[in-house]
Amino acid sequence: MRIIQLYKKAYSGLSLNSWYLSLVILINRAGTMVVPFMTIYCTQKLHFSITQAGVIMGLFGAGSITGAFIGGKVVDRRGFYDVQVGSLLSAGLLFILLGYQTGFAAICSCVFVLSLCNDAFRPANSTAVAHYSTSENKTRSYSLNRLAINLGWSVGGALGGFLAAHNYQLLFWVDGATNILSGLLLLKIIPRAKSFKAKETVETSEMGSSPYRDGVYLLFILLVVLFAFCFFQMFTMQPVFYKTQWHFRETTIGWLMALNGLMVAFIEMILVHHLEGKRHPLRYICFGVLLTSLSLTLVNWLPSTVVVAIVVMVGASFGEMFAMPFMNAFWVIRTNSHNRGQYAALYTMAWSTAQVLAPLVASQIIMYAGFTTLWWVLGATCLTASAGFYILYKTRFQKQLVTVAVK
């Protein structure tokens, strides 16, 4: 009974449109299965080299950077609603088209355009979440959005593993169809937003009209890139590692990714509800990134079994739950309604940059030094990022909190 009450408190007070938006995301992400299996598809089915697969995955990131930048600009000028709809519908068609490409150049071109269209959605969606929430429930609104993403991811990962074991072509059709369906659903159930919220002001004296002149935010973004570079390996190179080094089947890999989504879906909201407002977001971020560092290196210490892979995923999932919701909380409080799209775009671009670097750099490390070296490098990179978040907190925000306490 107490658990039910915890969930009730965690989810209470959120707007109806926040729930609708999360439903759209849930359907969209339930079909997310091309990207997680793209590296295996390229190397095992199309017989590309690991370097070629790394280039293709890097182009997903390059398109994402371009799409996020364009999407953020358009959102601040024209609003978030049409950007979301256009992104979902166009990406759906392009996912289906991608499934029919077999040449390296054709796949590279299609992947870049697809990712551009697909990730213009992300700054628009982040802005929409803020629009439909209040200052008291913004972090929980973003966590609800992440719950939908990860619950959908768990379905997509498990179903994707099953489909990949039978016919990779189905991955592209399902991913495309769910994109189109979610775009049509958004048009049906969420009314067009007429305007931005009025009379919103910037909350700290350090912030200006542009994220590109916000020094603290730029340092934060750099640290996010380092963390995201490591985090993406769980869905790009780690599946290849499990397939080629530990000889797991695609269905097993799919269930491991589903475990990540299920954990985030059922634990994160309770965790955020319990932690929100008790400490500065950067402290939770620091701990989450540190936990991720430890988790990524466990495969170098422990034997090659499914149990170990589960332990690795559980640790990384808790790292994600401590870090990512509070990353959203940090960037949102530095914005107002007139620059939120650009702040969201730069945050998206940080993840997209990591999406470019992660497969490209990792594939080179694997080729010249092997997977063992890769996991040590990732652990060290995450450790560096964790230290950076801690130093940022100690030098820029701890004194502010002490001043407030004294007053």
Automatic annotation (TrEMBL):
Domain of life where this protein originates: Bacteria
Mode of membrane association: Multi-pass membrane protein
Residue ranges of every copy of the Major facilitator superfamily (MFS) profile domain listed in the record: 17-397
A GO molecular function held by the record: transmembrane transporter activity
Keyword Transport attached: yes
Keywords: Cell membrane, Membrane, Transmembrane, Transmembrane helix, Transport
InterPro entries, sorted: MFS, MFS_dom, MFS_trans_sf, MFS_Transporters
GO cellular component: plasma membrane
Alphabetized Pfam families for the sequence: MFS_1
Subcellular location per the Swiss-Prot or TrEMBL entry: Cell membrane
Cited PANTHER family: MULTIDRUG RESISTANCE PROTEIN MDTH, RESISTANCE PROTEIN MDTM, PUTATIVE-RELATED-RELATED
Listed name of the protein: MFS transporter
Species this protein is from: Mucilaginibacter ginkgonis
